[in-house]
Structures are given as C-alpha cells and as structure tokens.
Amino acid sequence: MSELEDRFAEAVAAIGGVLKRHGFRKKRYVWTRVGDGIVHEIDVQRSHGNSAGSVRFYVNARAYVAEFDRAIGRAVPDDLTRANAQFETRFEEVSDWPTDRVDVERDADALGTALPAAIEQVVAYLDGITDAPSLARTLRESGFVLDDDLFAWYCATGRSSEAAAQFAAARERFGDEDRWPRLAALFDETAEKYGVPLP
Length: 199
Known about the structure:
single chain; alpha+beta; 2 domains; 44% helix; 17% strand; elongated
C-alpha cells in the first residue's frame, strides 16, 4: 500500500471513530444510523480522478424520514436503509471544512484534527433532522425551492402559507427561464390535488 493510501485509510479511520461514537454503523465507506423512522447516512466517495500520486475524496451526508414519505402517499420500505434519502448535501456545506474535497496529501496535517471536527459538525447538523417538520425546514433553508416532495408535503399537511412561499421563491428564482411554465404547471397540479390555492 502506498503512503497516500495509508493516509486515506487513516482519514477513513478518523471519520469512523467520530461516527461510531454517535451510533453509526459502518459498511465499507458508508456509515448509517437508524432511529425511529429516521435514517442518517454519511459516506466517503473516492474521486474518479485519483492516481498513484493523488488521492482525494468527498464526504456526503443524507437523511430520510419515513413520516415525510407517508404524508405524501409514498410507500415506506420495511428496511429504511433502502429508502431514497429526501435530503443530501456535501459535508463542506454544513461544516467548516474549507474545500469541496479532502486531498490526503494537501490536507495531511488536518486528517487527525480538522477532519474529525468537521465530521462532528455534520453529525450535529443531521441531529437536527428528527421528524418531518425538521426535514422540511432543512430542505427549505438549503434552498430546495424546486423540490416537488417538499411542496407536496406542505400541501398534504395543510401548510398552505409555506406552499405559497415555496412557489413564490421558485418563481422569483426561475420565472424568467424558458422552463418556468412547465415548472409552474407542476406546482399547480400538486396544489390542485390537495386543494391548496396558489398566488
């Protein structure tokens, strides 16, 4: 094994050490924590551009809430770890890690300190997703204005003001694009299904 691969293994071990303390279980480069109707997942994704002289990886975080899917009429699998996550982000978006990837050579001094600290921040972020309302808040605050499921959840649960706000935010951001009439029609279709008026 090369020196860079040794450093990669050390980085994965550092990440795993943090996640094990928080109740995550590891399978290869994926750590999963299953709660009452909730799944939190963090994985390490090796870069396709790696070579003998360069080893880089990304860290992704995901969350799934069964209650959210039930509200919009989607089937919930018996094994929640097989469900499609409703929220996904890269770890630099929710931590102090300064770049979009970890380079085991460039970041060698940070692998045992700053990297575990960033993973702690990611866990704390996922800890905030405990039910359907907190998932919806996370999606909204993360800018998921075109998320069909989020809009459907607002409509299905009688949150008409939030549905209208999402529609308005989508129109403001994408209203000048050629695709807006098609997007607006999707919003209209969902709103009509649940009897929610749109502005």
